[in-house]
Amino acid sequence: MTTVSILSGGAAQGLVRGLSDPFKTQTGFGIDGEFGAVGIMADKLRAGTAADLVILTQALLAKLAEETLVIPSSITNVGRVETALAVRSRDPMVTVKTETDLREVLRSADAIYVPDTKASTAGQHVAKVLDQLGIANEVASRLKIFPNGATAMRELAASTAAHPIGCTQATEIIATDGIALSGALPPGCELVTMYTAGVTTRAAHPQEAAALIALLTGADRKDLRQRAGFTG
To answer: Residue 187 in 3-state DSSP?
Structure first.
């Protein structure tokens, strides 16, 4: 089967997976996706990795359009995603309403599962928040850093630590079995990121790529986007 190829931030993986059947019905094409830290996905496109479309942060899509790697007129907002906390499904939920709450929750965790703190949106933010809270050095040995949020959340689900916690995009938490979304970060520490999609200038299947973007962003898929963790 012919496929449309994607380079995408991990935040969109669950949503794309949910659209594979309707996309195949509409176009006859499958979806071949690579999902990971947004910075790494952007660099793959720059390095020549074949892709018909990309789903990355709004800021990165704008840069790639300036670099003539994405068609500017094709860029469409998919939705906003919160960076949030995760716990194993069998563990009590945690509620953080203030920076003080978040500091205590993170200090009490014996393992903190996060995505790449240099190349991923959520991982970069976690590193910033730990500095902001003044506990970066204190918890450094407890950070469990993985290439992307999806991997970090799978590892959290399998963790044998007594009191582990995770922090990544809400969409990646929702898409992972064995863990639960435990709430957004508190005021002053929050991060809401707009994700956008665009057809690449080297797309082998530009029409089908545009059709997939229309599916991802269409009004009739609003419920699916919300279930996957995207907001308007």
So the answer is: coil
- Residues with Cβ < 8 Å from 213, sequence gap 6 or more? 53, 74, 76, 197, 198, 199
DSSP H helices in 28-169 = 38-46, 58-66, 99-108, 121-133, 136-139, 149-157
Q: Would you give the DSSP letter of residue 69?
A: S
What separation in angstroms does the CA of 219 have from each of 70, 114, 129, 173, 175?
24, 32, 34, 24, 21
- Token pair 């393992």 is found at 111
Distance CA 188, CA 182 (A): 18
Q: Which residues of the chain have pLDDT under 70?
A: none
Distance CA 76, CA 117 (A): 27
Amino acid residing at 165:
I
Alpha-carbon gap, residue 122 to 134, rounded angstroms: 18
Q: How many other CB atoms are found less than 10 A from the CB of residue 176? A: 25
Whether the CB-CB separation of 172 and 90 falls below 8 Å is answered with no
